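Backbones bend. Shown next:

***
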Amino acid sequence: MAEDAISPPAVFDWLDHFMALSHDGGMREIGKLRRLSPHDGWLVGIKAVQDDADVHGHMWERHPAGDEMLCVLEGRVVLTLADEEGAETDVLLDTRRSAVVPRNVWHRLHVACPGKILFVTPGHGSEHRRVAAPDA
């Protein structure tokens, strides 16, 4: 084998397997752990979703470090966005539909039909808060 020969890349099952994208353009697989290094800028993955527990539907989240892209590969999810006053807007995403959640916008997901989603999200600085219980 020649000194400058290229080693074949690792091959892996893409489902529920995550990748870290570094600020310098590098990429490394992190499997299911979702543990990022300080130099990692983005988390990319494809996740099977059966119900709201798979998408942390009980939590609002926002990403001050950047926008988040959500793509529905199969199934159907409802993306709920909340403005500064707490008014909510629902966006239905079904198979082959995607949306970009702007930086700093509170959002959460609801699984309407099981499937698979691809996400590209900032790797650090995300904020979370519990969904308030409905008034009785």
Observations:
- The chain has no helices and nine strands.
- The chain has a mean pLDDT of 90.
- The chain has one domain: 17-127.
